[in-house]
Amino acid sequence: MGSDLYAERAAALDSPTLAVDPAGIPALVSHRRRVLIADDHAIFRESLAQLLQEFPGLEVVGSAENGLQAIELTAKLKPDIVVMDVGMPHLNGVEATRYIAKAYPQVRIIGLSMHNQEAIAAEMLAAGAAVFFTKDGPLRELLSAILN
After folding, report:
1. DSSP string, 75-143
2. What is the pLDDT of residues 50-82, one digit of tens each?
3. Pseudo-torsion of CA 35, 40, 42, 48, nearest 10°?
4. CA atoms within 13 A on the CB side of 76
5. Domains detected in the chain
6. pTM for the whole structure
């Protein structure tokens, strides 16, 4: 049932970078990717976590509502991927990314912002994010970056 759900979700996203062939699923499942979500909006964190939990190759290990929590939880939970919002209280996503990228270079950071500004994207990438997306972009691109 989980395999069927994954194939159904991936097919619905219609992305060539997502494995839609059931033969591709074992590659994702062989190494479960641990994901930490850092965003100051609870609805966004919870919705993204619920969506990601539906993919057999992913495990959401925690969520942070600010940059300081993102750093603390990265140290504690050792995620493979951190989905990092830019604008957060206490410590913004750029500074949290800079710290995590330096202290935990094996962690892949995916930057997110509701602002579609090249300067913000460039700042996140310079801080150590692997990729950057705006929150109003296609969901399939974010999922592809997390899954691949």
Report:
1. HHH--SEEEEESS-SSS-HHHHHHHHHHH-TTSEEEEEES---HHHHHHHHHHT-SEEEETTS-HHHHH
2. 999 998 889 999 999 999 999 999 999 999 999
3. -30
4. 11
5. 32-147 (3.40.50.2300)
6. 0.79
